[in-house]
Design a protein that fits this description.
With 372 residues, the protein is of the alpha+beta class. Helix content is 48%, strand content 10%.
Length: 372
Amino acid sequence: MPPQTRGTALRHRLAELRGPDVPAKALDARALAALAANPGCRRRAILDGAGVDKTALASALGSPSAFGQSQFALTRGNAFEAKVKADGGAELLRLVRGHLDPGAEAAERAAVPDLSAIGPEGRTARTALALREAGEAGGWTLLDHPMLALEVAGSPAFLEPDAVVVHPDGSWTVVEIKSFPMLDGSADPAKVGAAARQAAVYVLALEAVAARLDPSPRVRHDVLLVCPKDFSNLPTASAVDVRKQRAVTARQLDRLTRIEEIAGTLPAGTCFAPDLPAEQLTAAVEAVPATYAPDCLSACELAFHCRQRSRAADEVTALGRAVRAELGGLTTVEDVLSAARGESGDPADPAVAALRRAAALRAEALQGAACP
C-alpha cells in the first residue's frame, strides 16, 4: 500500500470525524461567509471542514435548528432563477449589460458551455477551462452554475454560484439570483448585505482561477444582484460593490485556524455522526471550543445548542461581540456584576471603572425616582 500523503491523511481524519458511511455535506458560499464572520469559532470550522450535517447534529443534540429556508421559498427561488435564465439567459445578459457594461456590444447571443463533469474536482477543472476558452473567443459567455474551489483553513471548499458572465472584454462578473423582491428599486438592506457577503466569496474563488491564467482576466467587484420587481415575477437587477465584503472575508479566512490543527487536538475516537447516543455526541461537540454570539442565530444550525451552553457557563459572549469587546478581561456575567458592585476588579481597569460609574448613576437615578 502506498504511504498516505498529508492531504489523504487529512481527508481520512475528517471522514472519521464525520462518521463511517456518512456522506460529506458540501460547504457552500453562504456557510463560508458565516464562517468568515466568526473566524474564532473552532467548532464551526471543524464541523464545516469535515462536512458534518449540522442540522442533523443539532437535532440529535436536542436543540433543533430553525435556521434555513422553507421548502416553499426554495421552490419559489428555483422557479424565479429558471425564468431569469430562460432563452439562453437573454434577459440575464441584458441586465448585466445594462447595469455593468452599457458600452459593450449588445448581448443578443451568448455561448453557454456545458460544464458537466464527474465530481466537484472535475466540474471545477471544466469551469476553469470554460472561463479560459471564453476569454479567448471574445463575445458574451454565460456559465450556468459553474463550480469554483477555494482553500479554507487548509481544506478545499467547492462553491457553486448561480452564474458567472464573461464580458466581451474578457472580464468576469458574478451573478446572484435571489427571490426576495426589490420594491421601488431597493431591497431589504439585511438581505442585500447577506447576498453581498456570499457573492464576495465567489469573487475570491474567481480571483484564484484568474491568477492561474496568463494574462490574468479582471474579476469585477461589482456583482449583479437579480431579484423580482415589486410584487411581480419579472426580474430586475442592481449592481452591488462587494470590495469591502471581499476584503473582510479574505482577512477573516486567513485568520481561520487550519482544520488539521483543530483535528489534532481532539481526543481519539471523536465522532460527530448523528446516530450516536446524545451523551457521546455532546461530549464530542464540547471537545471543540465554540465562540457563540447572538449573530450565530441567523447563521449557524448549532446556535441554539451553543447559546444554551454559553448561558449555562454565564459567558458574556451571549450578550454580543460588541459587549464582550468592551468588557476586556471580564468573561462572565457574574464577573461583570461583581465589578460593578465594587466587590472585585481593578479600579484602574477602564472596563471596571465604567461599570462602577454606570452602577452609581443607576443607583442615583433610582433613588431620585423613589423620592416624592
